[in-house]
Design brief:
With 528 residues, the protein is an all-alpha fold. The protein contains 20 helices and no strands. It has one domain: MFS general substrate transporter like domains (Growth Hormone, Chain: A). The chain is globular and about 75 Å long.
Length: 528
């Protein structure tokens, strides 16, 4: 079936770039921001949501988990659907579905309706995210223009999470938590209306038969891994709260035997999901090596530069979650900031990202991706390490501001070349699959990072509390509990910084691409 929209019929080959590509970039950027925002915008609204709908503490985690499971699980399938069915068509369906799911979430009357809406958001987000990035790949073939386009994408990917925290705080405090969902509607609808005339259709040439067994295996595998690590993080936080309460009671009763908090890794069901997911992914890889038209061609992953980019993406995703999750808790629970103030306090990250993403788009065609990725990882790590020195009464301008600014600068220098390197040279047939793989590594990395950093934080809180109480501390003193929390947060920042340093080392060792390896004309917009 041929798309006869003006944008489609005006599509041009790589040596004649599509004339409306910059307008198309603006449209695509809106929906990319939607997907990024939705990972954090609901976080600040969680207390209001749970209170309004009567959601129990045990079930509260599904507000976040329902989204991450379906989003992470369906990404690779979504990328292949974009390649084979048409990237514009997949983009439009993803945006429309995301809008409908957001409306349902805003109208939710009970937890089942809300969890279902969040799961649907994840499904349609898994269509929207890889289709958006694949469209950028086929629209921008000149190295300098592509660097600028990925500069926009990198700024959104790095700064969107902080913007989500701010927007969530503003909407929750001055409107209603339901607007954290409804705010997606006008943006998605505007993007759809503009995409119809301005975004051209493109699809993979050649064999476009679907690898259904591979899709089932990798969807179940990724969802299982994400859920397993999510269980570890939740168990760690729950165990920390229970241990703190038990130790306070023990000290009040004069008992000296304290209960250590379990790290969460003893959850047998979590390990069942993690190991089961890894087995499914291993079977998926074996299947892909034997399939004529695989869901994820192994050449995408096994290429040294792309493989290095994906591994770096996983480590950055794991370390980055420590910044926004624990920093938000520090601002609200330790410094006592209101949600809106906490959101504004997170904006230095976005400022840093905007500065460095713009610089990266200029530098990338001149010096290549590797120096920028290494510099970005080290700057971001320095930012998190700076945050590891915060205390009970640290002034905002003293450490949080410079630490976040450094973090943002590092993320901008990392995401722009990372996004470019992960996709350049993948070929038009595999653009959606390559972009989906990039999104999937970030999602899995975030899940692993949440579990690892949460368990390390809990262990630090437990040790600090036990030492303080053992030394005669007053279990009723609020300052003791806050000091223990700070110890947990700073421990998480330190380890997160280590993950980002490791990401920089991976880039230094594995990435060999130079500016000459960023070719022009490696993709062609095909009318389908």
């Amino acid at each position: 079936m041929t798309d006869t929209s003006p944008a489609t019929t005006g599509a041009a080959p790589a040596d004649e770039p599509y004339e409306r590509r910059w307008l198309a970039l603006g449209v695509i950027a809106m929906t990319v921001l939607l997907v990024i925002l939705d990972a954090t915008i609901v976080n600040i609204a969680l207390p209001a949501v749970t209170a309004d709908l009567g959601i129990s503490a045990a079930s509260q985690q599904w507000i976040v988990t329902a989204y991450t499971l379906t989003f992470g699980g369906f990404l690779l399938l979504g990328g292949r659907i974009a390649d084979f069915w048409g990237r514009k068509r997949t983009y439009l369906v993803g945006a429309a579905g995301f809008a409908v799911a957001s409306a349902l979430g805003g109208f939710a009357q009970n937890e089942a309706m809300l969890f279902g809406a969040r799961a649907l958001q994840g499904v349609f987000g898994a269509l929207l995210a890889p289709a958006s990035l694949a469209l950028l790949t086929v629209l921008f073939t000149d190295p300098k223009e592509r660097a600028k386009a990925f500069g926009v994408y990198g700024a959104i990917a790095g700064g969107g999470a902080a913007i989500g925290l701010l927007l969530g705080g503003v909407l929750t405090e001055y409107a209603d938590w339901r607007w954290c969902f409804w705010v997606n509607l006008p943006v998605a609808l505007l993007a759809i209306l503009l995409a119809i005339p301005f975004v051209p259709e493109s699809k993979a040439p050649g064999d476009t038969s679907y690898d259904i067994p591979g899709a089932v295996l990798v969807t179940l595998g990724l969802a299982s891994i994400v859920y397993g690590f999510t269980r570890v993080a939740e168990a760690a936080q729950t165990n920390a709260a229970e241990a703190a309460a038990a130790n306070a009671r023990a000290m009040a009763e004069g008992r000296t035997t304290l209960v250590p908090a379990d790290s969460g890794w003893s959850d047998g069901l979590a390990w069942l999901f993690i190991v089961g997911g890894l087995v499914l992914v291993a079977l998926f890889v074996l299947l892909e090596l034997r399939t004529r038209n695989p869901l994820l061609p192994m050449r995408i992953v096994l290429d040294r530069n792309r493989g290095g980019a994906y591994l770096t993406s996983t480590l950055v995703g794991a370390g980055l979650i420590g910044a926004f999750f624990f920093l938000s808790l520090y601002f609200q629970q330790v410094l006592g900031y209101e949600p809106v103030v906490a959101g504004f306090a997170s904006l230095p990250v976005t400022l840093g990202v905007f500065i460095s993403a713009g610089a990266s788009s200029v530098l990338l065609p001149r010096i290549g991706p590797k120096p920028l990725m290494v510099l970005g990882g080290l700057l971001a790590a320095a930012g998190l390490f700076t945050l590891s020195f915060v205390g009970l009464d640290t002034g905002f301008w003293e450490l949080p501001f410079p630490g976040q600014l450094l973090l943002g600068l590092g993320l901008g220098f990392t995401f722009v070349p990372l996004s470019n390197l992960a996709l350049v040279g993948a070929g038009e047939h595999d653009a959606g699959a390559a972009s989906a793989m990039l999104n999937a590594t970030q999602q899995v990395g975030a899940s692993i990072g949440t579990a690892v950093l949460a368990s390390l934080s809990v262990a630090a809180i437990s040790t600090y509390t036990a030492d303080a109480l053992g030394a005669g501390g007053n279990p009723q003193d609020p300052a003791l509990g806050l000091a223990a929390q700070v110890e947990g947060y700073t421990t998480a920042f330190t380890w997160a910084a280590g993950l980002l340093v490791l990401g920089a080392l991976v880039s230094a060792v594995l990435v060999k691409a130079t500016k000459e390896d960023l070719p022009a004309g490696d993709a062609v917009v095909h009318v389908g």
